[in-house]
Structures are given as C-alpha cells and as structure tokens.
Amino acid sequence: MLGTRHRFALAGIALAIPVGIWLLWTFDPNVEGNPFPPCMFLAFTGYYCIGCGLTRALHALVHGDLLRAFSMNPLGLTALALVPLMALWSAGWDPRWLQPLMKVVMEPKLWLVVLPLYWIARNLPWYPFTLLAPG
Fold this sequence. Notes:
Layout: H1 4-26, H2 40-45, H3 54-62, H4 66-72, H5 74-90, H6 99-105, H7 108-121
Helix pairs in contact: 3-4, 4-5
C-alpha cells in the first residue's frame, strides 16, 4: 500500500508529465523568447554539461523527430528510456528478459565512469566527439 507521501509524489509526476509535454509541444527552445532557461553551466564556463541539449532533445521527441532528439543529447535520451525501467526494477518488477540489462545499468560503478567520460568527450573539439555536442 502506498503512503501519503508516495501518493503525492505520483500525483505530482502525473501532473508534471502532461504539462511538460504541452510546454515542449507549444514552445520551441531553439528560438529567441522561449520560456525555457538556458544552461547556466554553459553560460558560465563555455562548456557543455551532461544535460546540455536535453530540452531541445525532448522538444524534438515530442514532435516525433527521434534522430534530431538523439543528436541533441544521446545519453539523455538513452537515460529517458532507462530511468523508468530502473525505477520499476527497484520497486520489485524483475522480468527474466530484462535481468541481463538491469544487472549492467543498475551498477553504480558504470555511471561513475560513463557520466564523467561523456561530459569530457562531448566537449572535445574533434570528430567523432563533436557528434556528442548538442546542435
């Protein structure tokens, strides 16, 4: 049985998802005057953060442009698919067909290596690393 706190969290998520989809459908983060905040890390340092391009990726995804979405933030888009599976797995859902994948992605050491490497690689100015930069 879910506690009150969990019910409020689920209600918040259930409200935030359609509102977020509506915002991303209605407003284009690629144009001036959009309501989305710019990346503060990029503004202060000139380097892309791990999440740079994710708003534009989600905008492209909402509009059905999967290739453009993936080009904006490949790791973010991959995480978008993995995080719900990871949450369900943590809650006890463990179908046999998913076990090999979850054994890998639920390992914290993987993320301690992948996230910093991705962050560094997407800021390198040479091909093929430039493919990881948003845009």
